[in-house]
Amino acid sequence: MSYTHNVSLTHSASQVNTFLPPISILGVGRTVYAPQPGTAITELVYHAVQAALNDAGLTMRDVDTRVTASVDLWDGLTASNVAITEVVGAVMQPEARVAGDGLLAACHAVTSICAGAYRTVLVVAHCKATMSDPRALSNWTFDPIYQQPLDLDDFSAAALQASVLGSLAPPSHAPLADGAAAIILSTAAAPLTIRGMGWALDEHYLGDRDLTDSIALRAAAQRAFALAGIADAKRELECVEISDHFDYQRALWARALGLDDFPKLNMSGGLGRGAPPFVAGLDCLIEIVLRLRETPGLGLAHGCWGPAGQGQAVMVVGR
Amino acid sequence: MTELLKISHTMHLEWRYGVGASFHEFIAALRARAQILGRRCPGCQRVYLPPRPVCGNCYVELRDWVEVRDTGTVRAFTIVHTPIIDPTTGARRPSPYTMALIQLDGADTTLNHYLEASDPTKLRIGMRVRAVWRAQRMGLLGDISHFTELTDE
Amino acid sequence: MRRAAIIGTGQTKHAKAHDDMNQAELVRQAATRALSDAGITFREVDAVVLANMELFEGRALPEMWVGAGAGGYLKPAIKIATGGTSGTSAAIAGYHQCASGLFDIVLVVGWEKHSEGATQTGMAMVDPLWDRNVASGAVGNFALSISQYVAERGVTPAQAAKVAVKARRNAAKNPYAHLQIPDLTVEQVLRSPMLADPVHRLDMCPQSDGACALVYAAQGVAEKLCAQPAWVRAAVTRHDQPYIGDLDRRLVTMRTLRDAARAAYHQVGIVEPRKQIDVAEIYEPVSYAELAWYEALGFCAEGKAGELIDEGVTEMNGELPVNPSGGVLSSNPVGASGVLRVAEAAMQVMGRAGAHQIADARVALATGYGVYAWSDVMILSADT
């Protein structure tokens, strides 16, 4: 089996939109991010959804569809969105469920709005990172033939990546917590709109990757910047929130985004705030929304998932 | 053709499920008093088992508790012959066994549970049944060992 | 907002165990065949949508490993997982991405490799405080609902068996199908071992290893690449409550499928489905379900599904052929099964179904079924 590595990032067809139609962010909501051992996933999700609806001044009746994000093995449930069907209002209604970060779910939600399928979409992500052992869980992400038997997991992969970057100390991981985040996107006019987005998958085998860089993040950012009409990200962006699941990732992702030494990077304090995996990227978007409500401009949210950030997503929002 | 290689992995994972406020009440009542609590929707008046935060049909929060009896009516049944691994023990269940969807008196939803009938040919939708409880209760659905025919109504 | 059409499909042979290919290779084979059918290469693909029920193989985010098989490297790739409807939900997601105006070509690939996991254990990982207690797999759940359907509708085991026979006979014309039994009889179905009353082994779908892919192209591109694209005319999803006991006689009412079909028919202007739909590929994990879906889809009046199969209306040469591919009853790699329904419907509209082609098929219906009662409905047409 061989894969082609020769990928063109620029699009040649004339049909493809070079900008996004106006899609606004009407509301955001989230739980606290902390270990919540007795709380059910349904309760976390319901809380985040209610907060987002209240923030938007909407009711569930106004929502046309939902895109949810969660991962079965992390929830210990098959088709884990079954558990949240009622609290996201999906009974006799449409829902799509993305296995990955909530920011990826938001990107997909935007495409379904652009397709004219729906006007108002609820995006929800949840994860209880403390209900199992993320180290043991993430070992099951690695291909079972070459990498899983090496006992690789998200933490050892990160340590490997940190070592390539010159740090021999084990990287420090953001605190593991439980929580949910929700956001409401709509064609209804509002001050905050989505200007650009991109997502991409990197090579799976760590040995095949240049771990000192993230070309997947570069690819995702290139698409997002092109749609948003951003030529000089460092100068044009007002604020940036990136998913630094491990401490070394802050500089790594910033560099791939062309944002080294960007002053307003992770003003929230980064994932030290506790946003769990798969919720983190959507929570970065919430942080950007809250900041742009105070200060107009362009903001960028970043999410990543999988071994050493194999999956990457970027969204640019403006006011 | 030479036999192709296979690699075997065994999964040992553990999850600690948060039961949430609704189930917490349910479990406490079940354990303390063998009492089955459902929740009534203020919109459609449907009484839900298991209790949950929201009625999916009305999208309203459920707050009112309703006591449901441990007797009920069979709404569906089957005799399972195929070998099934019991996910709570990992062992193969003895088969055949009968399971049913039982609408407990006072509830609007049905409960999927084991049914033991003295004469399997007499199984029918609409038959009346009662819960047979285990001596020790943990606050789980398994505290009901199975359901059996209700003969003395 | 643009129109989008399917311009190519591809699938692996579906089989009990594909020891010859790992998951990424299965996906790559289906994807390569679909791209070849569309006359393009991985290079032309703008975005990838994957579908898989990872807990069946005991994996987390398997698209990390498998995604490259679909050419996902450095491309926008996403995985949809909604139970049995994963494949149809991914087909709808891919349609939305292509119709969004952001991508010209979108590749959708669904796969499952049941032989590498413990499907029954994966399937039993439902609510640990409730349905997990007596979880008895899809067979047990269906058998419960079938007891209600049989009691209300009076369909007979022989009528259900006819559905099973039709599926395996049709599958014999489909080189990719898992169970191909051209001369299966009703008596053989009824004599096969009882899994859970009244479901015999041959009433039930198999577990298969396999993958299926389809290629969407946007209006303006599709016509250039394909002589007869299969245009998406409707795509509707309906989910339902989380516990089996929440659903009132689900096979009798099947409100999600009923409502999704009505919404889809309305969008396309279908008022007499039996006359206006040329061919249907529906997600029937068990023979009895196909009969129930006939009613929910409006192929016949309530309670008349038994007559419909008796009269041969849904046979290959009938008025409304259902599952000429052999359906889920003949091949069931779960994450691919929904993609297969949509791909097979597209093949009919494109005139590329080979030995199981229905002549002059211009309007095709595809459905997805998952969890206890979730439904997807898509309508494809030769006309934009």
Walk me through this protein's architecture:
The complex is a heterotrimer of chains A (319), B (153) and C (384). By secondary structure, chain A is of the alpha/beta class. Chain A has two domains: 24-131 and 175-186, Peroxisomal Thiolase, Chain A, domain 1, CATH 3.40.47.10; 193-318, Thiolase/Chalcone synthase (Peroxisomal Thiolase, Chain A, domain 1, 3-Layer(aba) Sandwich), CATH 3.40.47. Chain A contains nine helices and nine strands. In chain A, the strands form two sheets. Chain A has a five-stranded mixed sheet. Chain A has a four-stranded mixed sheet with strand order 6-9-8-7, sandwiched between helices. In chain A, helix 3 packs across helix 9. The N and C termini of chain A lie far apart (47 Å). Chain B folds into two domains: 19-68, no CATH class; 70-153, OB fold (Dihydrolipoamide Acetyltransferase, E2P), CATH 2.40.50. Helices cover 9% and strands 34% of the residues of chain B. Chain B contains one helix and ten strands, in the order H-E-E-E-E-E-E-E-E-E-E. A five-stranded mixed beta barrel of chain B has the order 6-7-8-10-9. Chain B has a three-stranded antiparallel sheet with strand order 2-1-5. Chain B has a two-stranded antiparallel ribbon with strand order 3-4. In chain B, 38% of the residues are buried. Chain C has a single domain, classed as Thiolase/Chalcone synthase (Peroxisomal Thiolase, Chain A, domain 1, 3-Layer(aba) Sandwich). Helices cover 36% and strands 18% of the residues of chain C. A nine-stranded mixed sheet of chain C has the order 3-2-4-7-1-8-11-10-9. In chain C, strands 5-6 form a two-stranded antiparallel ribbon. In chain C, helix 3 crosses helix 15. The longest helix of chain C is centred in the middle third of the chain and has 17 residues, at 137-153. The two termini of chain C are 14 Å apart. At the A-C interface, helix 2, strand 3, helix 3, strand 6 and helix 6 of A face helix 1, helix 2, strand 3, helix 3 and strand 8 of C.
